[in-house]
Every structure is written in C-alpha cells, then in structure tokens.
Write a structure and sequence with these properties.
about 25% strand, globular, 3-stranded parallel β-sheet, 4-stranded antiparallel β-sheet, 7 strands, 5 helices, alpha/beta
C-alpha cells in the first residue's frame, strides 16, 4: 500500500497488530499515551514486553490511572516520563521523605468541559478565565460546578511569564 497520511486513511486501514504498531516507534520518538479511559493498555504493556529495540523515548501523558510498567526504574534507559501525575512510584518515599504520604490521587468525573491554556503568571489568569466564560456562554452552554486548574510547570524553576496552566470548566447545555 502506498504511504499516505494517517488522517486520510479509514479506520480499517489503520488497524494493525501490536508488533506492527510497535515497529513504527523508533528510538528517540515521543510517545503520547491517552489519559484515563483512553489508555491503550495492550499497547502500554507491549511497549515494555516487546520494546527492547527502544531507547531514550519520551512518554507524555496527563494522568495515568492504569498500569504504567514503563515507570519502573529498570526501564529508565528506554523511557523518560513527562507527566502531570503518575502516582507514587517504588523508592520515591525513601528518597523524598514522609511528605509523600500526603499525596492524594483524586479522580475527576467532569463530563463535558471547556478548557483553555493560560501562559503567564497565576496572578494574571483573570482575563483568560473571562475569555473561557465568554466562550462557554457564546456557544450555548452554561457553567456547571467550579473550574479547576492543571499546572504544567514548576513555579520554583519556571519564569512566571512562561508558566502554563490548563483552566478547565465543566459545562452543560444552557
């Protein structure tokens, strides 16, 4: 079959075996793993079990609820993790002290939501939040519950002008 853009191919044309899918991942590639119910567990397990050809691959994900065998320190030569939250991995408590016991994993079941990326200091989020609210109301929706924020930078090490925050607001039809 001639090489085509994946977006131009039908679902049936995109289906492949685990081995075929893994053969497309090359050393140094970025691998995005869907979050929550979008985590392809069969492929995640295959990355570890059949991915011995991989090295220095960055795994990106927001929130992993399922298995994350690639987070095991023995695979650190194969995978670098870039995640909002993975969970407390073995060995972390011993290295970071007792504060790890205070980490709480919460699951948000928000349903339909609108979100926007704010780039800049937390203190300047007001106009971005207003823009999100205007978008929601302007498209026939109303806010449901409180918004929450996902911080993608470390304010201790990031220039405030470069901090990234996802502002997410649950919505429903007005």
């Amino acid at each position: 079959m001639p090489e085509t853009n994946l977006r131009d191919r039908s679902y049936d044309e995109k289906k492949s075996s685990l081995q075929e899918a893994l053969s497309l991942i090359k050393t140094g590639n970025h691998i995005f793993i869907g979050s929550a119910c979008g985590e392809p567990q069969h492929l995640v397990n295959g990355l570890v079990e059949l991915g011995s050809h991989l090295a220095d691959n960055e795994i990106l994900h927001v929130h992993t609820l399922g298995v994350a065998p690639y987070a095991n320190p023995r695979y650190s030569g194969r995978f670098r993790l870039n995640a909002f939250f993975v969970g407390v991995r073995p060995g972390v408590k011993e290295k970071k002290g007792p504060a790890v016991d205070q980490v709480v994993l919460e699951t948000f079941d928000e349903g339909l939501s609108a979100q926007v990326m704010h780039i800049g200091p937390y203190s300047e989020e007001g106009p971005t939040v207003k823009m999100l609210h205007d978008f929601i109301h302007g498209n026939g929706y109303k806010m449901r519950g409180r918004h929450h924020e996902i911080y993608l930078g470390d304010p201790r090490r990031t220039d405030p002008a470069k901090l990234k925050t996802i502002i997410r607001q649950p919505v429903e039809k007005a």
